Amino acid sequence: MLSKEQIISDSKEFSLFSWSAQANVNPIAIERAEGVYLYDCDGNKIIDFSSGLMSVNIGHGDQRVTAAVVEQMQKVSFVTPTCTTEIRAKLARKLSEICPGDLNKAFFTLCGTSSVDNAIKLARLYTGRHKIIGRYRAFHGGSIGGMSVGGDPRKLANDSQQMPNAVLLDDPYSFFGMKDLDEATKLSLSLEYVERIIHFEGKTNIAAFIFEGESGSSGCLHYPKGYLKGVKALCEKYDILFIADEVMAGFGRTGKWFGFENHDIIPDMICMAKGLTSSYIPLGCLMVSDKIAAKFDNTPMMIGLTYNAHPVALAAALAVINIYESDNLIANTKKMGVYLESKIEEMRAKHPSMGSFRNTGLLGCLDVLKNKKTGELIAPYNAAAEDLKVTNLIAAKVRALGLYTFVRWGYIFIAPPLCITEAEIDEGLAIISQALSIADEHLV
């Protein structure tokens, strides 16, 4: 068995780490994981407060998934996508059952990014139009297509490679001059802005809107009440498709099967991944309405993947969905989300650096303040390295105390596995509380 030092050394020497300057990478060498805990190669116990990449929804190390995968591999591990298997039939039917409306057709992909890319292709093939409208404060994956329809600053280094015909919207909570208006006026003006963009870009040129069902890595920024429903209504008015990116928000994360269900809408397509298999095995899915699928009954659907409907990955997904149901994890998400919010509020008396906490189910993000009076965060959106000194101190403290989560700009993300208990929430928040003391000291 390799030593921890050898694991880290060889990993750095012979592999590349995403989104990072390679010289600065300092990975944790993980040996095993169980429930809400990771265990490093020194035997240290680390509580996972972000479910890996907001994706290990059922918790780590559930051997029911292992058993399902082994059973499938003992039958058949791979067939070409032109063949089919029992597990493909079972999972496709199950997804049809849990998806609302006429979202009954599953196109299986490899990950969230490939779900988004194929949604873009299918929207263009179905409508004969070319433009896709997304949001600046959204992330839809690391491919050229996914990066182009989102505005996460990680895309900026690849700007020269962007996909054409991607149009981005500002968000209603970011509009200049709207702060002092009442909510109804803000909503009306926000939707008027969206409709203006539709006309500016040409209503007959727009194939689809793509929105996260619930905002994630941008800071869990909540859509104003009625906003997503209003955007969907505009899509229907102009015969534009609505794609819901549920890669992060899906599969119980927000207290419902899908984040968009919190907004009383039904999209035309759903992009899935992450929680679909709880990240035990890579798999994505693009769920498509019967209306869209019918176009390809007698016309070839020109999208495809070698690993489309990979039997082993499908077996993992069906096992995971069964665990959501048998273990009542969606109900537990709602319960633990309420408990988490109450404990966060209790912490405010101790930490003046705490700002807003935006949470839906167990998809939460805490603002950490630099200035209490103005609400300025300890680091701005897309902060430069010199602006991240306090953020880096907080991140280092969290890690040193045995908690894994994302600390990004002025945000601390809190999105633990859906199986978490009150005692485990208390354990994680106690560590975050210690780290917030650093921010308290730098408050102005």
Automatic annotation (TrEMBL):
It comes from Flavobacterium taihuense. It holds the Pfam family Aminotran_3. Keywords: Aminotransferase, Pyridoxal phosphate, Transferase. InterPro entries: Aminotrans_3, Aminotrans_3_PPA_site. It comes from the Bacteria. GO terms for molecular function: transaminase activity. The keyword NAD does not apply. This is Aminotransferase class III-fold pyridoxal phosphate-dependent enzyme. Belongs to the class-III pyridoxal-phosphate-dependent aminotransferase family. Its cofactor is pyridoxal 5'-phosphate. Signal peptide: none annotated.
